[in-house]
Amino acid sequence: MNDKPHWLDQPRNLRLLWRGFLVVLVLTVLAQLLVDLHPHFEIEAVFGFNAWFGFGVCAAMILFAKALALLLKRPDDHYGPGDD
Amino acid sequence: MTDGLLHPALVLIVGALLPALLRGNARKLAIVALPLVALALVWQVPDGPVWQARFLDHTITPLQGDKLSRLFATIFALMAAGGGLFALSQPSRVEVPAAFVYAGSAIGVALAGDLITVFAFWELMAVGSTLVLWSNGRNSSYRAARRYLMIHLLGGVVLFAGITGHIVQTGSVAFTHMAPDSVAHWLILIGFLVNAGAPPLSAWLPDAYPEGSWSGTVFLSAFTTKTAVYALIRGFPGTELLVWVGLFMVFYGIVYALLENDMRRILSYSIVNQVGFMIAGIGIGTEMAINGAAAHAFTHIIYKGLLLMSAGSVLLMTDRRKCSELGGLYRSMPLTTVCGTIGALAISAFPLTSGFVSKSMIGQAAVDGHLLTVWLLLTAASAGVFLHAGIKFPWFVFFQKDSGLRPAEPPASMQLAMVLFAVLCIAIGVWSQPLYALLPFPVNYEPYTWAHVLAQLQLLLFSGLAFFVMLPLLKRTPTITLDVDWLWRKLLPAAASSVQAAWRSARQAAVDGLALRVNRSLGSIERRARHDARLSNTGSTRSMATWVLVLLLGYLLLYYL
């Protein structure tokens, strides 16, 4: 490894990446004003459907998984120590 | 009847002896060339029966071709070649030959025209895959291989019962469309679903696959579940139950993968998730849906192979498998990082990757059938794929925190295998026509419309936002999540040992009781046998002779009366 930190290790670049990501997010939603998405189902016709639906179901799945973990989470040597 | 064409499956199965016997460069050549020979033979298989023979009063067809068969046989052979290349530096002398038997049997199932041949190759597949697991040599692999074999032999018995019943009822051994309308057909369906990783036994898959070696798991990921997908497409297209089974698998895979810490177990849960999409497509059963399921099986084998190759490289170079101990590997393993990320984008169905052109056909089939609930669930699941495999896997393995590990890139053969599969992921995504031409039905579908690309980007990028916003909730802990394998890893052994303990104490009590009684009887015999006891009297010979005389006289008297 050389001494120069990897470009991904510089906080300035990380901030740039985040900003770029947020700009792209906004652009994908705004692009909907230019492109007809040919909604087939009624719910699809709601503005930004894929954006809020994607975000919402992902949040829901994470919360559901965390709730399930309360019941089913165990230390990883539950079935006896692995040999690795 | 055979028309002189070699059976591609047998070439690979018998040829597996070569890498077992050869050494050095000849072995390496055999490992890469054999699957390619099998691949060339697969493309020679024409439509209709090729090999036929009489077996137990039935005409079996061990080699039969059509587009669906050739599609699956093609990807199985391709995967054997890619996996073989990746495994060239594998020191185990058992693994690659076992993997070739495994891959050859999968090709055998895909090219089988009758159920007897299907069953024979089905069981051989279980043997080959168990050996692949076993050859890893660790105790944990050995135990996992035993559990794996147990489930697959169980599935095999169910399948055998179903096939026997089907042959008795219909008199036909042909492997064609069936419906779950009789006990026999239900048993066949269940036998297929066990191998597909369907509930309630899905747990065998994430239990066993992560215990393979760094290259073994690459082979394991490809054949068993996708052979089951093939068998379901052939046998049970349009069975509505499969839609719901598939949707369950999709969400099961996501939720369990979100909680998982072992990088290859994350990818194993995601196999169940991806096979769920295919099975839901088979359940929808239209031409579009079947094309989608078949195409998705094809692309999935490639990108899941690629993902597990990148995970295998990390495992080989770091000897670590837990996300909580990994991270920051992009610094010293840039090629592995890029290849793993391409696999992650492909599984997420990002535009310009193979997953985009295959999975979207299943969603389109739901739209065409006006199945709103199914479509909403499939769309939610697509977002979830990006969450659990598309970002989670590369993020925790290659980025995340700096784990301090600075492993080198893996050996050149492994890098080459990864690059080739990464190129395939993108090539199919950019240029989908060659894949579409191989599908069982004519394809009337254009994946790249502005609407489709934009909708998919919105869905995926906002899923990505959800991942990073909720990252604190996803922090990895050294834990596992209980699954149904708890039943046969904890409950059954516990029940068995308590039954054993109860049996032992009952036996002890019985033995003790018996001993007490024997002692008592011995005591009473002793008492009665004392010299002054009644039964111990010694009578005289004279009195005995007198009594015998009395008896005989009595007898004589009775005789004359």
Model description:
The complex is a heterodimer of chains A (84) and B (561). The longest helix of chain A is centred in the C-terminal third of the chain and has 24 residues, at 49-72. Chain A has 84 residues and is mainly alpha-helical. Helix content of chain A is 52%, strand content 4%. The radius of gyration of chain A is 21 Å and the shape is flat. Chain A has one domain (7-72). By secondary structure, chain B is mainly α. Chain B has a domain at 237-489. Chain B has helices spanning 8-15, 17-21, 24-42, 67-86, 95-110, 115-134, 139-170, 183-196, 204-208, 216-220, 224-235, 240-259, 263-284, 287-318, 334-347, 354-368, 372-398, 412-430, 433-438, 450-469, 485-528, 541-560; strands spanning 48-55, 58-65, 479-481. In chain B, strands 1-2 form a two-stranded antiparallel ribbon. In chain B, helix 4 (67-86) packs parallel to helix 14, helix 12 runs antiparallel to helix 13 (263-284) and helix 14 (287-318) packs antiparallel against helix 18. The model of chain B has no long low-confidence stretch (mean pLDDT 92). Chains A and B meet through helix 1, helix 2 and strand 1 of A and helix 12, helix 17, helix 20 and strand 3 of B. Strand 1 of chain A pairs antiparallel with strand 3 (479-481) of chain B.
